[in-house]
Amino acid sequence: MEYVIYAAYGSNLLKERLLAYIIGESFRGITKKHTGCPDKTEPVSLGWKRIPYRVYFGGYSGLWDGGVAFLSTEIEPNTEYHAVVRLWKMKREQYECVKSQEGESYAKEIKLGTLDRLEILTFTSEKKLNYNPPSKLYLDVLKEGLKETTGWTDKEIDKYWEKFLK
Fold it and tell me: What is the pTM of this model?
């Protein structure tokens, strides 16, 4: 059984959101019902870290009614803009299943090194999309996910996301 570590940076920072993909349900009635993964085993959160890629908002999601989070595909030199990711240990098949449910917009895989001899992976858009701000609903889910992930205060969370909303 092969495991990987999925580095989530958007709505999948929030455990409840990620589980909707794995179990196969809608998220709070906002998203359509996901197909789910054959293996429903809950992933294990291994904490969080910063990675040298920048979050940006682009594309358009009709479900969220606005832009959604992506990572730049180029190394971000300014540490102020390094993305926070939540590290989810899961079976490789689950990772691939979540990635496929995210859709074609998230076709580019980025390898972020290893942790405990497990590959750390994430995915984003193949090409940089035009900026499109997120809806309040989506941003609220991101804030909730970051709070669950880091335990930061609301002020720290607002400061983190605001720098990417330009």
Answer: 0.96
